[in-house]
Every structure is written in C-alpha cells, then in structure tokens.
Amino acid sequence: MSSQVISKALLIVLFPAVSASVWSQTSGNREVSADHVEAVSQKLIVKSDRLADRALRRRIYKALAKHTEVDAGNISIVAKNGQVTLDGTVRDAGQIDTVEKVTRSDPGVLAVTNKLAVQRPFEE
C-alpha cells in the first residue's frame, strides 16, 4: 500500500475518534459556582434598585407638575433606596414646603433631605 492510502485510512479512522473525544469534553454539564450565582444576583438586585429609584424620581416630578405654583425646572431630585434629596432653587419660601410635602406624600419615600433655597433676583 502506498503512504497516501495509509494516511487517508488513518484520517478516516482517527478523525471520528478525536472528534468524539473533543465533543464529550465540551458538552458535559457545567457546574455553576455559588460565587457566580451570587455575583449575578447582586447585579440583578442593583439593576432593580436603580429602576425603582428612577421610578420614584419620576413619580415625584409628576406629582410636582400638578402643582402649578411650583417651578420644578430648577429642582434636582435624587432618590436612593427610598432616601430622597431635594436640591436647587425655588422662587419663594412657600414653595420649599410644598415641594417637601409633595415628596413625602409618595409611599416609596422613606426620608427626605431638603436642600432647596430661595432664588435671589439678579439685582441683589
């Protein structure tokens, strides 16, 4: 027999054997470590917390929009796990109380830090 025929015969016999060996090594069930599961869980929790914080901010801005006497354009609302911080300026002191009252009325608000200030006119 020639060396080419022997080489082809060996390829025909060895290729399926090697392929089956490689396939069996890679197709086995993977075990997922507890650390990996914990890391994925934490990412999901953080993402859901962020979504809840955003939803809380939107609800507060929406509630403030119903109060036409309040200009919420200069008000910043930061929400983190039910803790809300109000920052910015309003036109008069009465609006500070209104904004805080509206914010506290949302059931998702646990605490409010009010850093609002009255905007001074440019002449002063």
TrEMBL record:
What InterPro entries does the annotation carry?
Answer: BON_dom
What region holds the BON domain?
Answer: 52-120
The keyword Cell membrane is annotated on this UniProt entry: no
**Which branch of life, at top level?**
Bacteria
Q: Which residue positions does the secretion signal occupy?
A: 1-20
Signal listed as a keyword: yes
Q: Which UniProt keywords apply?
A: Signal
- Xref: Pfam families: BON
From the Swiss-Prot or TrEMBL record, give the protein name.
BON domain-containing protein
Q: Which organism is it from?
A: Paraburkholderia panacisoli
